[in-house]
Amino acid sequence: MLDDDPTPSAGTGARPRAHIDTSKPHSARFWNYFVGGKDNYEVDREIGDHIKEIFPGLVDVAVTSRHFLGRAVRYLADERGVRQFLDVGTGLPTADNTHEVAQRAARDARIVYVDNDPIVLAHADALLSSTPEGRTVYLNADLYAPETVLEAAADTLDLSKPVALMILNTLGHVAEYDRARDLVNRLMAGLPSGSHLVISDSTATSEGMIAASDAYNASGAVPYYVRSIGEIAGFFDGLDLVDPGVVQVPEWRPDSRSAAPATAVDAFCGVGRKP
């Protein structure tokens, strides 16, 4: 979702030619490797295996975070009647992407994916399936330009009706916490009452996770910064938190389809409703 240069993207929609740099790890490919995908390269697997030696628990973070996505989307579609999803920082497609989960629950759901990463761009067509009743689109746009994201999303979503804003395992790429909060607030400001914010991110809650983060950031990849639980909770200021609040990802409304690991994970999540 984020480039080395945090300058806002010039536009949306048009697909630039993908340039895939296989000389250094890439966050989307790295995460894809951890969740069992095949869209990764040797350089991603090497740092992945190195981090597994430092902190095997990061694999649990990746897998349980993916399960949280499914539970959150099902909750919003089934229990809150949400029919519109804005997924910012899409990442590489794997099993049970946002549109697949949403449209299983509600065939008329509309999903807008947002990313500007050439790796994700190269796989975007895999995301562009939809039920006949719903719609799924991909925007080439940038988290650092939230008003541009909202303007482009309005071609598919009715922004006068509730939208679920999904930002999963993405905000750690924004180095400055205050800037990350500002970006989230600006996106939520463009959505109406009844919209929801869904966030999950890795947290600096163990020495192992901090060491894993340091190793990843030293690999040459675009850095990813783990934050405190309080900082994750701060993204939901002004929103009504859905029970059970900001918790470890396996603890958010667990169900039989996503059994929690035996040990805690260094990743927290939450869902908040805009009053």
Explain the overall architecture.
With 275 residues, this protein is an alpha/beta fold. The protein is 34% helix and 15% strand. It contains nine helices and eight strands. It has helices spanning 27-34, 42-54, 57-78, 98-105, 118-122, 146-153, 177-189, 207-217, 229-234, and strands spanning 84-88, 110-115, 135-140, 164-168, 196-202, 240-241, 247-248, 267-273. Strands 1, 2, 3, 4, 5, 6, 7 and 8 form an eight-stranded mixed sheet that branches. Strand 2 (110-115), helix 5 (118-122) and strand 3 (135-140) form a beta-alpha-beta unit. Helix 1 packs across helix 2, helix 2 runs antiparallel to helix 8 (207-217) and helix 3 (57-78) runs parallel beside helix 4 (98-105). The protein is globular, with a radius of gyration of 17 Å. The chain starts with 26 loop residues before the first helix and ends with a strand. The relative contact order is 0.18.
